[in-house]
Amino acid sequence: MRRLVALLGCCLIVLFCACQPEPGDGKLTVIFPLETTELAGGRSLRVTITLMDNDDQPVEGAVVQAELRAPDGSVFTTIPCADTGQGRYLADYVTLPLRGTGGAWRVTGRATWGEDQQTHAERTFKGLPSVSEEIQTEFGFWVDPLEAPHYGYANLEVRTQRYQDDSGFVFMYNASHGQINLDVHWQHADWPVDEAVAEAYARDLLLSFQGTVTRTPAQDLQVEHTTFQGQPAWLVRGQWSNPTRETRLGGGPVEWMIFRCPGSNWLWTIVICAANDSPVYMDTLRATQETFECPASR
Asked: Which of 42, 73, 80, 264 has its CA 20 to 30 A from that of 169?
C-alpha cells in the first residue's frame, strides 16, 4: 500500500512539472494601440511594440511582426515592425476598413531573436463604425468619407438633415487645406425634361441649401446629359462665389450630378465644390462621388 502511494506521488510530481510553462524568452509589450483606444473605420493606426529580455534590457535586432484581426476573427493584415532602437519597434500606418470595423480588434505582436528566442503579446482595442456606415444605417445610401488630399479625415465634418416628408441631405466638409464639400440631397421633384430645367433645378438647390458659406453660382452654367451609376443623369457645371466675404474663401468650381436611384421615388443630387480651382481637389471629389451606392429601396 505504501509503495502504491509513493508511486502515485511520484507520478503527480512528474505531471506537475510537465504542465509548468517554460520560462519566457523576454517581455514583448504592445504600447499602441491601448485597451482604451477607439478608432472608427477609415482612420489609421500605427502599432508600436517594445521588447525587453528577462533582465529588463532592451532587445535590438529582433524580427517583430504585428497581426491585426477584425471583430469577425479574420486576419486583416500582418505587418513587419521596424527596429527604431532601445527595444522599440514601429509598424507602418494601417488604415482600418470602412465596412465592418465596429467591435473588438485584436493586435498580436510576435518577436524572434538570438538563438531561437521568441515571445508574443496581445492587445485589443475598440473599432467604431465609419462615417459611411453611420450614414448608410440612417439614410440607406453609401458614400466614402470625404478625404482632403494628403490630409485624410482629421478635419472631416458631417451635417445631416431629414425633413418631415423624409427628404433630406448629408453635407460633408473638409477644411484641412482650403475647402472641399460633398452634399447628397434627395427630395420629391420631377425629372428635368431638358437642359434649361436641369440648370434651374441645380441653381435653386444650391441657393436653398445653407452650407458653411453662402454660395451663389454663376449664371453661365454648362449642362449635359450623361449617365451615373448606370442611370440617366444630368451633369451641371459652374462656379460658386462667396459674396459676403465672411471667410477667406472667395469661390471655386461646383458640379451637380442629378439622377434617380432604381426603385426610388426621390430625385437625387450629389453636389461637389472646392474653394479654389485646384484640379486635384475636384478630382478627389469626383472619385468620392463615384463611391456612391444607391439605397436598396426607398
From this structure: 42
pTM here is 0.80
CA distance 69 to 81: 16
Q: For 16-26, how does the pLDDT look when each residue is reduced to its tens digit (9 = 90+)? A: 333 333 445 78
- Which domains, and CATH codes, for the chain? 24-128 (2.60.40.10), 131-289 (3.40.1000)
The residue type found at 140 is G
Residue 208's nearest CA partner among 187, 231, 190, 238 is 187
Q: Which three cell numbers stand for residue 188?
A: 420629391
DSSP assigned state of 55: T
Q: Which residue is listed with cell 447628397?
A: 184
Tell me the pLDDT tens digit for each residue of 57-91. Answer: 999 999 999 999 999 999 999 999 999 999 999 99
Distances (CA, A) of 42 to 86, 270, 280: 31, 21, 21
> What is the Cα–Cα distance from 10 to 21, expressed in whole angstroms?
19
Residues 145/98, Cβ–Cβ less than 8 Å: yes
Give the span between the Cα atoms of 187 and 264, in whole angstroms.
10
> Distance between CA atoms of 255 and 276, rounded to whole angstroms?
13
Q: Does residue 132 contact residue 153 with C-beta atoms inside 8 Å?
A: no
